[in-house]
Specification:
The complex is a heterodimer. By secondary structure, chain A is α/β, with parallel strands linked by helices. Among the domains of chain A are: 254-343 and 433-516, Rossmann fold (3-Layer(aba) Sandwich); 358-432, no CATH class. In chain A, the strands form five sheets. Chain A has a six-stranded mixed beta sheet, with helices on both faces. In chain A, strands 16-19-20-13-21-22 form a six-stranded mixed beta sheet, with helices on both faces. In chain A, helix 5 packs across helix 6 and helix 6 packs parallel to helix 7. Chain B is mostly helical. Chain B has a domain at 36-244. In chain B, strands 1-4 form a two-stranded antiparallel ribbon. In chain B, strands 2-3 form a two-stranded antiparallel sheet. In chain B, a hairpin with a 2-residue loop joins strand 2 (161-162) and strand 3. The longest helix of chain B has 45 residues, at 74-118. The chains are: A alpha/beta, B mainly alpha. Chain A binds chain B through residues 30-32, 314, 316, 335-337, 339-340, 346, 348, 353-360, 364, 368-369, 371-372, 375, 380, 383-385, 387, 410-411, 413-416, 427, and chain B through 1-5, 8, 185-188, 190-191, 193-194, 197-198, 200-208, 260, 264-265, 317-319.
Chain lengths: 516, 320
């Protein structure tokens, strides 16, 4: 920690030799150029934010820094020397530490054991437990957290675990800490505490790379901000004087209206109604309505219970009390097959896990939910699939959704993420649903496919389908929704109509500021 | 994506050329190296041994394709079917005894199916365990004795031929044809493949995944029972070890033919290809007088190679 307070204050000036310079970094994977001529410079004791949409290349850049990937082109300088970070171990040797969304703590070990994991102080024969506890206390003190070092990680809250992870990083002699979405699963209060801890890192001369979608946090905490888009660095600027709107504009590279075209659709009667729906420990007492032709956004932080609510409505999980109505008829979603018969469709959040069936063709993926005759557009008779009917239906859907390529016998694995998502969407359209639940419909798809998927969603609404859309991307919720419900820690905390849908309103509600 | 696409097509070609080419190669090697290979009686021998294993392999194909890996209880179920058939034959007659035998096999399969499909226990462990249990019961039932056939008519039928084709071969071909139709053309077949291709996604698409996977085990047990009955009637006597090795040979045929061990892809024609390769290989080795141990070694090597290739291809095409 040789850096003095004065240097820290001058964090963004160029008078200090930078700690890290990533110069002209490119990284290509087979068929994909993930990073293209990226430049990044981190000063000692600087908090440097990186913002950008999903898929902009932030994570790939961090993986290069962490020694997980090797850059295809470009050089890295560390404290003035050119280095090659060949492995995660090499990155650690330099003093580079990563804190990812998924924490790397061992839940069944204590706080102290986790903090000194891999380098436990040794006594004559066994681990020197006293010294280990002392080290843990020291590290916890730096971040201002009072915790019993003997507590098991499993007994801590998520935010406490995050702090322990940071304490571990500090006590291991980090010089640069990269945090990837550290506050995404925290409440507003916990998030503020974490931000304070990050600031204290800066004061002990540690540099921080801070990746977040929460732009107000970024502007509050960072010295400088680098914007990434489509694998490139668009600009690096001082955080002082920057506005959220400017950042969004740079991140997206075009106006939001073009990205989420919103058609004006007449809104009909109530199609779906959940009444006091409660799933113990996941969501409680949720009453919502979705009308025909209406796109209703379901906003909230990760872990607010949105996906859990959707899964229960679709019969993937049980709920404990409450009732669901479809066109005023009570439905009891026992399992997905039942829900499909009732007229509910659910495009899941995780496409790879719950959406596509990789070894099957586009055709087979499209017709998976309409094989049985009792479903509306069934393509089978007495259990035998009608080949002509199936092919015709698959061809119709590929055309309707403009899946590229439109070769229905191709394996779905060979398509891009956006086209895979269109096929999953198509599977559900085929069932002729009254209610379509979309869970993060454009996660991980590129900007072009995003706009196209939203055009399709708009068309579906125009056909009179009631749409409930879960999204963690506020611009998406704001631009596409007719109405927005906000969940916080499993409870419905707010409802906004078209005029009330603003980033500030939603964020305030989602972070629980209304609930308390 | 491009790379994955290329591998995808390569893999398809790899099957459509690779398996028939290997069969052809083996036929050539056999006929060149041994004067006994290309004789009617030898080829009928090969076909008959393919059929007994093949009936089991057809059932196993459903298990593997639905993502249930393999059914290792096959040897015990074959023995059970054979023992019950011959044991109850004197009182129930051959046909009645067969019904009882197959029902008992279906019950064993149902227990496997429930524990694996609904409780989602590891299929390898469950069927390894049920193999020992069922074999134990069968052994207790006959007490180590040999049970003999008491219906010479049934023996004649099973050992007989129609238009030169052995009865057992006909039974196998009919069953294979039905299975092929189910897998390729019916809703149930598509569900089976989808369950193995992505269990969670299939479940979320309304496929009754637990039932589908459970039934695959019932089907395998019933078909193993059919194999056991045919074996018992043609051999005229049964000991509890009668089914030994059928789990392994049928599984070998699947992986060699290109049914993905990971589930979600495969077909009955591929199983046939695999059966031909494995059985021709062992036939050629028998004709050349290789000891049984060497045959086992060769079969083992082929399986390990086929499994490794399957996983490798899947990984590269991004399926894992």
């Amino acid at each position: 920690m040789s850096v003095s307070q004065d240097d820290v204050a001058a964090g963004s000036s160029s008078s200090v030799a930078p700690l890290l310079v990533m110069n002209d970094i490119s990284k290509s994977f087979p068929g994909v150029l993930a990073l293209s001529h990226v430049n990044l410079e981190i000063q000692p004791g600087e908090i440097h934010a990186i913002v950008g949409e999903n898929g902009a290349g932030k994570s790939t850049l961090m993986k290069i820094l962490a020694g997980v990937h090797k850059p295809t082109e470009g050089t890295i300088q560390w404290a003035g020397d050119e280095v090659s970070i060949g492995s995660p171990h090499a990155a650690q040797q330099l003093g580079i530490r990563m804190v990812f969304q998924e924490l790397s703590l061992v839940p069944d070990l204590s706080v102290a054991e986790n903090i000194s994991l891999g380098r436990m102080p040794r006594g004559r024969l066994f681990v020197d437990r006293k010294r280990m506890a002392r080290l843990a206390l020291e590290a916890l003190k730096v971040i201002g957290e009072e915790l019993d070092p003997n507590t098991l990680i499993a007994d801590l809250t998520i935010s406490q675990r995050q702090l322990v992870e940071i304490a571990r990083v500090i006590s291991s002699g980090a010089r640069l800490v990269a945090l990837d979405e550290p506050t995404s699963s925290l409440t507003e209060f916990e998030g503020k505490k974490l931000l304070a801890v990050i600031k204290s890192l800066k004061h002990s001369g540690i540099s921080v790379i801070y990746i977040s979608h929460r732009l107000h946090e970024v502007l509050a905490i960072a010295d400088r901000v680098t914007v990434m888009r489509d694998g490139r660095t668009i600009e690096t600027r001082s955080a002082q004087g920057a506005t959220q709107a400017e950042l969004v504009q740079r991140m997206v590279g075009r106006d939001l209206d073009d990205m989420f075209p919103k058609a004006i659709v007449p809104i009909g009667p109530v199609v779906f109604r959940a009444e006091n729906l409660t799933g113990e420990g996941k969501f409680s007492d949720i009453t919502i309505e979705v009308r025909s032709g209406e796109i209703v956004g379901l906003a909230g932080l990760i872990g607010a219970g949105r996906t859990e609510f959707a899964r229960a409505v679709f019969g993937l999980d049980r709920f404990d009390s409450g009732a669901c109505f479809l066109n005023s008829v009570r439905i009891r979603p026992k399992n997905p097959a039942q829900a499909i018969r009732d007229g509910i469709a659910y495009v899941p959040e995780d496409r790879r896990l719950l959406g596509i069936v990789p070894p099957l063709s586009i055709r087979e993926n499209l017709t998976l939910s309409i094989l049985r005759r009792e479903s509306r557009a069934g393509v089978s008779r007495a259990g035998v699939i009608g080949r002509r009917a199936e092919r015709a239906e698959a061809a119709r859907l590929t055309k309707h959704l403009s899946v590229v390529p439109a070769a229905i016998e191709r394996r779905i694995e060979t398509l891009s993420g956006g086209n895979q998502q269109k096929v999953v969407l198509g599977r559900w359209l085929a069932t002729g649903p009254a209610l379509l639940i979309l869970d993060e419909p454009t996660r991980g798809v590129d900007v072009g496919a995003k706009a196209e998927i939203h055009r399709i969603i708009g068309e579906l609404a125009a056909e009179g389908i009631a749409i409930l859309m879960i999204s963690s991307e506020l611009p998406e919720i704001i631009a596409a929704s007719d109405r927005v419900y906000v969940l916080h820690e499993g409870s419905l905390v707010a409802e906004f109509d078209r005029e009330g849908i603003t980033e500030e309103n939603i964020m305030t509600a989602a972070t629980g500021a209304l609930a308390s | 994506m491009k790379l994955a696409a290329r591998l995808g097509t390569k893999r398809k070609l790899g099957f459509s050329i690779g398996v028939p080419a290997t069969v052809l190669l083996l036929l050539m090697v056999g006929s060149v190296s041994s004067p006994h290979f290309l004789t009617v009686s030898n080829l009928l021998n090969v076909l008959t041994s393919i059929s007994i294993v093949g009936i089991v392999a057809v059932g196993m194909a459903f298990v593997t394709m639905s993502g249930g890996w393999a059914d290792l209880s096959v040897p015990a179920v074959i023995a059970t079917g054979a023992i019950i058939l011959l044991g109850t034959q004197p009182t129930l007659g051959t046909l009645g005894a067969m019904v009882v035998a197959l029902a008992a096999c279906a019950l064993a399969g149902a227990i496997n199916g429930i524990v694996i499909g609904y409780i989602r226990a590891n299929p390898i462990i469950v069927t390894l365990g049920s193999n020992i249990i069922v074999l134990g019961i069968a052994q207790a039932f006959v007490g180590g004795r040999i049970v003999y056939n008491s219906d010479p008519l049934a023996n004649q039928l099973v050992k007989g031929k129609n238009l030169g084709v052995p009865f057992i071969v006909i039974v196998f071909l009919v069953l294979a044809l039905i299975a092929h139709f189910i897998l390729a053309r019916t809703v149930w077949g598509r569900w089976t493949i989808a369950t193995g291709g992505n269990y969670a996604a299939a479940a979320a698409s309304g496929v009754p995944v637990r039932f589908v996977r459970g039934i695959a085990f019932v089907l395998t047990s019933v078909l193993a029972g059919v194999s056991g009955c045919l074996l018992a009637l043609s051999l005229q006597s049964v000991r509890p070890v009668i089914g030994t090795g059928y789990d392994f040979s049928s599984f070998a045929a699947l992986v060699v033919g290109g049914v993905s061990l990971l589930g979600g892809s495969g077909s009955i024609p591929r199983v046939l290809g695999g059966l031909l390769i494995v059985q021709l290989m062992s036939n050629i080795m028998v004709l050349h007088g290789f000891p049984t141990t060497a045959q086992g070694l060769a079969e083992g090597l082929v399986i390990v190679f086929a499994v490794a290739l399957d996983i490798k291809l899947r990984k590269r095409s991004g399926g894992l």
